[in-house]
TrEMBL record:
Entry-linked Pfam families: Peptidase_A25
Chain's role: Initiates the rapid degradation of small, acid-soluble proteins during spore germination.
InterPro entries: Pept_HybD-like_dom_sf, Peptidase_A25
Coiled coil: none
Modification(s) after translation: Autoproteolytically processed. The inactive tetrameric zymogen termed p46 autoprocesses to a smaller form termed p41, which is active only during spore germination.
Protein name: Germination protease
Entry's EC annotation: 3.4.24.78
Enzyme class: hydrolase
GO BP of this protein: proteolysis
Molecular function via GO: peptidase activity
Subunit architecture: Homotetramer.
Family: Belongs to the peptidase A25 family.
Length: 337
């Protein structure tokens, strides 16, 4: 009999966090996983290439290219920093377009996944609202379209609970009719770290699965399903209560070790056996306590209204600059609505 231990795993959608957990468990680097990290002006960019099946299995992510942009300073709503992040996003996203062979003439469909009535899940619809869409101009007045713009359409299909239709089915119907060359899917994600909520952007060339941020694994938006290359863009906006409690034990252990001058016996005296349990073992214990009480809730910062607007504008203005040559990439702030 095969045991399903998924409920006892730390829930995160970020490849960089899965890599960190896998390396911690393995005690070293993962074969077949290539990492490149650059940092400047408070912006950390991690590029991960999952090149082998072994690496894919160990971190639980499909083989592909993942880029994570982490900017803790975004919480301060610094407009100058937001412009720098947008420029970095344009650079990284443009590299994705080149890598998968998308030219300035190819048609693009932007899909904003999520529920616009729920703030932490409204990232996708907000990006769609601020995106520069042009398909109707190409259809109705192609001779009046200025050089430097490509054909871009966008849709916010809603969620299954509202429409009764899987987002993937809606998108597939649109793809069959409009025949885009690329799909860009934007969705909210979950993180194991409170520090990464609303301050991190993940770009991946393997598509995206609607509802993954809250554990609803359903039919995804991928090249295999839709027949069109699909780039997924996600921002962690939520964290599970059990994950927060579990992470708090790590913070407490580090704090007691620091205060005690690295005295592990003192830490053990305070935390007991909890200090010796692995992360997943401790998480399983926390879930056993919280789940029967119905308290393993999904948590988001109280400032989510401001954070979600800022990060959606960064992504939308970045996409506008990366997709349309006429949009000046050096003045992306002008295209932030």
């Amino acid at each position: 009999m095969t045991l399903d231990l998924s409920s006892y795993m730390v829930r995160t959608d970020l490849a960089v966090e899965l890599k960190e957990m896998a390396e911690k468990a393995e005690g070293g680097p993962i074969p077949g996983l290539v990492e490149d990290i650059t940092e400047h002006d408070g912006i950390k960019i991690t590029r991960l290439d999952v090149q082998s099946e072994e690496a894919s299995n160990r971190i639980g992510r499909i083989k592909g290219h993942y880029v994570t942009i982490e900017v803790p300073g975004l919480r301060n709503q610094d407009t100058t920093l937001q412009e720098k992040v947008t420029r970095d996003f344009v650079k990284e996203f443009s590299a994705f377009l080149i890598k998968i062979g998308i030219s300035s003439k190819n048609k693009v469909l932007i899909v904003g996944l999520g529920n616009w009535n729920v703030t932490p899940d409204s990232l996708g619809p907000l990006v769609v609202e601020n995106s520069l869409v042009t398909r109707h101009y190409f259809e109705l007045a192609p001779d009046q379209v200025s050089p430097g713009y490509r054909e871009v359409s966008a849709i916010a299909p809603g969620v299954l609970g509202i429409t009764g239709i899987e987002s993937s089915e809606i998108v597939q119907s649109i793809v069959e009719r409009t025949k885009p060359d690329l799909i860009i899917a934007i969705d909210a994600l979950a993180s194991k770290s409170l520090d990464r909520l609303n301050t991190t952007i993940q770009i991946a060339d393997i598509g995206i699965h609607p509802g993954s941020g809250i554990g609803n694994k359903r039919r995804g938006l991928t090249k295999e399903i839709l027949g069109v290359p699909c780039i997924g863009i996600g921002v962690p906006t939520v964290c599970y209560a059990s994950t927060i409690v579990n992470h708090t034990f790590d913070l407490m252990r580090d704090h007691f070790n620091k205060e005690g001058g690295g005295n592990s016996s003192q830490t053990k005296q305070i935390l007991g056996l909890l200090s010796e349990l692995s992360e997943n073992e401790r998480l399983g214990l926390v879930k056993e306590v919280l789940s029967p009480l119905g308290h393993d809730v999904i948590v988001t910062p109280k400032e989510i209204d401001e954070f979600i607007e800022d990060i959606a504008n960064i992504i939308a203005s970045g996409l506008n600059a990366a997709l349309h040559e006429a949009v000046n990439g050096d003045n992306v702030a002008a295209y932030t609505h």
